[in-house]
Structure formats: structure tokens, C-alpha cells
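Narrative progress, year one. The postdoctoral researcher (J.K.) led the effort to move from monomer predictions toward full complexes, under supervision of the PI. The following entry was the first complex the group processed end to end, covering 444 residues in total.
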Amino acid sequence: MNAAELIASGLLEAHVLGEGSSEERALVERMAASDHSVKTELDAIELALKQYAFATAVEPPVRVRASILSAIGAEGSKVIPMTAPKAGVGSRTWMVAAAVIALLCSGAANFLLYNRLHQVNDRLADLENERAVMADQMQVQQTSMKQTQDQLAVVFDPNKHIVPLAGQVIEPKAAARIFMDPATSEVYIDVLSLPKPPTGKQYQLWAQVDGKMVDAGMLDVADNGEQLQRMKTMPNATAFGVTLENAGGSQVPTLTELYLFGQVG
Amino acid sequence: MEDPGQSLFEAVRRGDKEAFAKLYDRYSAALFGVISKVVREEVRAEEVLQDTFLKIWRSAASYDPSKGRVFTWMLNIARNTAIDVVRSAEFRTSAKIQGLDAHVYRTGGDELREQTDHIGMDRILDGMSLEQREVIDMAYYQGWTQQEIAERTGLPLGTVKSRTRAALGHLRVALKDHR
């Protein structure tokens, strides 16, 4: 292979990139030493790669420089032998004793603090429970209070008509009051005294409108008489009556079972 | 052959740390550019750059001036170190896991493009044929040897060599014009 063939072969490029078999490398080196054109070509290829590298340079982060230089500094520095500090046997013993005592104290303190931490954590959990229970109770109280306030608002509303319902023959001790709002025709019943209805039976409120008895709603079976109960809205009611009916109510009042009655106004 | 880095490198060979710092300042960006094309994960590339310069420091005495420029010697250390990292099984696994990072870093190549734009490198590269660019990219960006490029492309080794040569020839002419 002559110089021109070598130059054309691509072996020189491979050589510059550190590639090629050992025979190829030896060949290139031999020919570069003997032939000036090969040497010149090699130089030109090296220069091109160098220029290419500089043309596509990327600045590395500063930290890499510091890291490399410190690694170099560490490599070049002399090893400093470790020398034990000079101390008498007595003072050394005292130092050990002091260290042991300090360690024991530290351990005891840790133990105490750890226990204390547990106690505090437990107490905190208890308090959190108590707080949650109180919050629940508070909610119940607030709901109850709101109901009471609503009822008081009805009872103490000066615009409400109060219609007393009197016990009839079947139960003369029975008593209740109707609160009626003339503006909105809202109707509330406040049961003062009524016998507990037998199983399967329920009290029903009736309103007299234009001479007819109209269903005004069922009284809550569970109602123990302490609650003011909102009934159906009844415009133009002239009288109210309560009868005992089968649970769920009837279309027409069973007048033989009339417990309460009262005229409006 | 007059290499301005030669005297600086002589000082490094004698163990001059200040000279080594100067050597780093002068060549780290060029070598990092080459490394970054091979190792596309930034942290890894930084590690390779560090390894490269530590190798340069430790083996400076083994550099033989008769065999080529200092820069070529350093360039090949950088390239080989980078290629070793890319080819190690460990890196392959982590490259899969960190595929997203690699992708992000690759888009970071735009930064590189800006630099090359600055000197018109893109125009220079555009002037090359697709085949020439392929071999240059494989040799540079992926760090493949000519033998491996031949295996991967299915081209005869001779063709790869002549294309590499043509591509580098093109580079040489373009860079000369540019100066």
C-alpha cells in the first residue's frame, strides 16, 4: 500500500480516532514516519477533529472543575500521620471516667425524656378524645336549642292565632292548642294531654274549611307532647278537631272517636 | 506540528497542578461537548468528564508526542471513557429507567445547536451528504467504532471508512473556509 492508497483507505481517520487493529496502527505509524504526505494528512485530520470538538463545545458546570481539582489535590498531598495526643495515664483515666459518666447521664436523661414523651402523647390522645365527645354533645345541644327556639318563635309570635282544643266526651281531660299564622296559614299543634294511642292507631288533625272537615295531617305517634308539631297549611280554617284513626289516617273523620275540638276565633 | 497546548501539557506531565487547572479550562468544554454527544444523561456526562481528566492527570506520562497531538490523545480518552459508560450493562438499565431524563437532556441539545449555529456548524453539516452525516453522527454522537457502524448499517467496512473520510474531508474544508 503506497501513501496515496493509505490516505484514501480511511485508515488514517480510524487511526486518529484510536481505532484499527494493531497491524493497521503499526502500518499507519510506519508510513507516517517515512512519508511526509501521510504525516501531513494525519495532522490535518487531527486538526479537523479538534476544530470540530471546539465548534461543538459545551461548557460543563463549574462544580465539575472544583471536584476534579480537589481530587487532584488530594492525590498529590502528603499523608499526614496520625499522632495520639499526649496525655498522662491519670488524666486519661479521668477522661474515660468522665465520658462514661456523661454517657450514663445522657442515657438516663434519654430514658426519662422518652417516658415523659409517652405520657404526654397519651394525655394528648385523651384530650383529643374528650374534645371530640364534647364537640358531638355540643352539636346535639345546638340542634335541640334551635328546635326550641323555633318553637318559642311560634309560641311567642304575637301575630299567631291560638286555638284551644278542648277534650271531648270520650276523653274530657284531653287538651291541645293550635297555633295558626293568619298571613301564611301555617298550622302548629301543641299537644298538652292525650292518651297514648293503642298500637295500630294514630291521632289525626282535621280542619273545618267551608263547612267540610279536611285532613290537616297525622300527629307524630312518638310525640310525647313536649314538641310543637307542624301540620298542613290550612287557609280559611274555621275549626280544628282531633280523632283517633287507624295508623296512616282516614279520608273522613271517625266522629265517634273525636278526642279534641275547638273553634277558631 | 505546532501545538499551543504542548508546553502546557509538558507542565502537567511534571505534576504541575496549576497547569492542569489551565488545561482543564482550555479543553473541558470541547471534551464535554464530545462526551455529551455520547452520554446523553447530564450527570453521567459530568462523571465521565471527571474520569477523563483524572485519567489525563494520572497517565500524562504515558502520552507519546510522536503519535499525535495532545488534544487527539485527550479526545480519545474522553471518547473511550464515554463509550465504556454507555456500553456498560448498568448504564443501559438506568438509561431505560431514566429514559425521560435522557429525552429532556437531548432536547437540551438545542443549546448546543445554538453554539454551532454561532459558527455556522449547522450549515457545514448540512453541506454533507446524508450518508456522510450518518457515519459522522454514529462515530461522534453515538460513539460507535467504524467496525460497529459497518455492522449496524450493513455497509462494508471499506464504505464506512471512505464515508468517514469524505465526511471528515468535508469538515476540514468547511472549517478551513470558516477560519
